[in-house]
Amino acid sequence: MKRFLSFCALAALAGTLAAQPVSFGLFGDMPYSRWEREQLPALLNEINRKPLAFVVHDGDFKSGGSVCSDEVFLDMLDVFQSSLHPLVFVPGDNEWTDCHRKNNGGYDPLERLAKLRELFFAGDTALGQRPLKLERQSSDPAFAAYRENVRWEAGGALFVGLNVTGSDNNYHGPHRSGGPVPEFIERSAANRAWLAQAFELARKRKLAGVMVIIQANPEFEAASAGNFKPGYRDFLIQLREETQAFAGQVVLVHGDSHHQQINQPLLDAAAREVVKNFTRVETYGSPFLGWVKGTVDVADPKVFRFEPRRWNPSGQ
Is 3 a member of any domain? Predict the structure, then answer.
């Protein structure tokens, strides 16, 4: 009997701890210049001093006009690995889809994506100095290539990383005409499966929230006017349907357009009213540096709350 009561007490304690608020950091679209690269360690040190469960960089760790070399990749890998918090990286277009450009070095985008997967998405834990177990889509033999698509649970919410990038999500490929190219078709199928599984899992576990993190700005405003960009159409429709079928709160985090904002741009397809359980968070982007502190708190009706932190090099 004593052993049973002890087990019950531990189970109750575990449930209490699981309901405690969890904070995390969001940043991306940097560094784009030598000066920003010099500022990055100090910005990370500021983040490191905060009691956070993890940090996410939502893509574009280089500018769209700089070289996509192994040296650049390895340099940023070292920076990410230096984070005292677990760091999850979601790839952006500047790291692979746009690397065919002459000023990027004329690389094959698919070869660069393969290199990203080799360097940044090895193993089953996040980058950084403290481990965070991740579930990768690549564990499913049907989607073995997609190591960058990840999910993890924290504070009563599910966090989901997807490879959805700027430059219209590589819909047209490097030639920027025609499309959809085979790479887009195959990756979109993987993304649809991963997103559907995430919401199914969140419903099964009765989680309070789902946060989806991508790099691209999927252009909600254009979509609301009926002008879907082809690279984001299926993603936005699925995201809306899954959100409206979910009892909790949903957040989409993205970068890409370098305009830090927090709002509710998703509209119901029929009523054209705001989908009230959906929030968009866009992170800071070069030349406006900073990070966003997020907190998941199941005791809060909104579940998620956010505090933008503009970077001030002077520390004032």
Answer: no
